[in-house]
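During data preparation, we tokenized the protein backbone, and the record follows.
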Amino acid sequence: MIFRRRSKTTDEQSGSDAVEASSDRDAEGTDSEQPALSSGRTRGPWDRSETRADEDDPQYVDLGGLVVRGRAGLELRLQVDEQTQTVASVLLAGPQSGLELRAFAAPRHDGLWDDVRTDIAAEAANRGGTATELEGEWGTELKVVVPVRTADGRKASQASRIVGIDGPRWLLRGTFLGRSATEQDPDGELAAAFRDVIVVRGEGPMAPRAMLALTMPSGAEIVTGDEDGAAD
């Protein structure tokens, strides 16, 4: 199922296959500067307790567990689990690249990314693919390549670059797709959008690896589509 936040400057487009919240307003200016934190991080993604940058910036979209800043040239899509009717992930889509965002609860004193990274690598191997560890801006990440079949039945491979951020009682997983899976661009729009993400874990108890609840933004409407809502 697909939802779309209608823009005043664009007409509804048919044939869409994801949940879209239009972000084609011009994102003027540069990224907000953030102070160094007790965690040692000087740039995002952020925990809700670390920033209020969204309060005075209309480019941010509140999705419940995640607050995401729209950027020029990127569409914000919400991928919905057809069975449960819940938002499973967020996708920032550009002309040649994409960034999928998923957030999970984590234990208070232990991060999840090391274990999740091992699980992702094992899953890739089971699918006949590979997972290679690389060092990037946000620490150890995974370059994953798995075999797929195209719409006309041909064999192909699909690459992704997966980044994990261990925050206060949460894990944010960012999956870079398309061109950004093979070409790291720290000055690009997707990397900048990832730094802008704010995670809202909440104070209630949650089982480790439970997905943080995401919600439809105000004004979203059903368009069309089919999306898988699996967490891992």
